Amino acid sequence: MIILRYILFPIVPIYYLVTWLRNRFYDLGVFESKSYDLPVICVGNLSVGGTGKTPMIEYLIRLLKDEKHIATLSRGYKRNTEGYYLADKNATAKTLGDEPFQFYKKFKNHIKVAVDADRQNGIQSLMQHEICPEVILLDDAYQHRKVNAGLNILLSTYDNLYTNDWVLPTGNLREPRAGAKRAQIIVVSKCPENLNPSEKSQTIKMINPKDHQNVFFSRITYANEVCSEDKSLNLNVLNKFTLVTGIADANPLLNYLKSKGLDFEHLNFTDHYNFTKKDIDLFASKSVIITTEKDYVRLYRNEALKDKLYYLPISISIDDKNRFNTIITEFTTA
Question: What pLDDT shows up at residue 295?
Answer without folding.
Answer: 97
